[in-house]
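Morning, I've got a small favour to ask if you have a moment. The fold is given in discrete form, as structure tokens running alongside the sequence. I'd be grateful if you could look everything over and explain what you see. No rush at all, and the record is pasted right below.
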Amino acid sequence: MTIPKTIPEDIEAQLSQDYGRFDGATSICIYNFEGSNVAADAISAYVYNNSKMQIHTIVDKSVPQWIGPEVDVVIMSYSGSNRYVESIFNGVTAKGSRVHCITSGGKLAELCRASGDDLHLVPEGLSTFGATGFEMGALVNLYDSLGVEGLKDAVKEMIPRLKKYRDEIWGSKEVWKLAMKVNGAIPVIYSSGELRAVHKRWKFLLNSVTGKLAFSGELPEFDHNEIVSWTEDADAKEFIILII
């Protein structure tokens, strides 16, 4: 599995598409599965801090009682074939919610087409990591169409800086030095809550691409309860802490 270098370009590709407008959205619930939760977390973290729109993230098959006609539901699964997709789709449609699907195909695309709900396709044939940029762009476009203000413009403004940083750091000595420090130890990656998607992605890549055991968590837990074990447990020397 290769790590995609084209995330900024993939985001742009989805942002160039016309998703139309959906009036009347007051709150959004997003279901996300597999590697899609990295894209969902990255975009939702920005929205949480910068938007008046309430967005709830769910990563299991539950359909809360508060979901109803006034809630727009987004179901995002790259493969579209997660085992929970059909039960969730049927559950939220039974409650009268307006449904939006982001996927490359599979059962989710079939259900969305059959019901006439809002379907947004991303390129098929990618790994879950390779799809992240397309999913981020699709989610930004969809949130914009639902009335989440400022998000699309903020992402467009960020892309040139993201490309510049990518080109500077990709394959650099700094990356190699970090890889050497991590080699031979078990990484534990921490970040603040708004960077949740980053520590998750690092962990997932280490697990899946290198086959390396890795863990991740969020501040302030690191500097509260967990710091006791880092200072007092003799086994802590087997780990290396990475703080983003």
In short: The longest strand covers residues 27-32. The two ends are 24 Å apart (CA to CA). The chain has a mean pLDDT of 88. The chain has two domains: 7-160, 173-243.
